[in-house]
């Protein structure tokens, strides 16, 4: 072997897949990633809700201000979003705890339970909408 030759020869015909458009996550992976994201959003939401609670308890004027904030469409929408994300985190969290106990561990049952969790969250989200509007 000559010294100028590369030590490792890379096969030109090896499979390469960097086209992200062709990569699809399974629904179980999507449920899992979104669960972590929903946990972080829930954590941030605590700050917003505590701020609102603090304002409403500070004085009668503060209470009126807090009520005024909640009346606006934008804040109502945020409240609906917070409740929906919390519902998702709890529903998928319970699914996760059940998996820790040995349920839904197979691909098929895991896929099914993820779909059921999405459906339950959708119903709870609708109910949250009815609650805040
Ligand atoms: C204030 C309320 C909550 C906050 C801020 C919160 C936040 C979080 C965060 C940030 C994670 C991600 C941790 C990680 O992936 O490293 C997490 C995971 C988890 N949460 Fe919550 N959570 C809350 C309430 C709940 C509730 C009520 C449940 C009940 C079902 C729950 C069940 C879980 C479970 C099972 C995990 C682990 C998921 C995993 O291992 O992938 N959480 N939570």
Report on this structure.
This protein is mainly alpha-helical. The chain is built from four helices and no strands. The protein has helices spanning 27-58, 60-71, 73-100, 107-132. The longest helix is centred in the first third of the chain and has 32 residues, at 27-58. 12% of the residues are buried. It binds protoporphyrin IX containing FE.
Structure in a nutshell:
The protein has 133 residues and is an all-alpha fold.
Characteristic key phrases:
133 residues, mainly alpha, 74% helix, elongated, binds protoporphyrin IX containing FE
Q: Which structural category do the helix and sheet elements fall into?
A: mainly alpha
Low-confidence stretches: none
**Series of H and E elements:** HHHH
**Secondary structure tally: strands:** 0
* Strand residue percentage: under 5%
Query: What's the total helix number?
Result: 4
Q: What is the radius of gyration?
A: 24 Å
End-to-end gap: 77 Å
Q: Please outline the major beta sheet.
A: none
User: Into which percent range does the helicity of residues fall?
Assistant: over 70%
Mean pLDDT: 92
Q: What are the distinct ligands in this entry? A: protoporphyrin IX containing FE
Question: What overall form do the CA principal axes indicate?
Answer: elongated
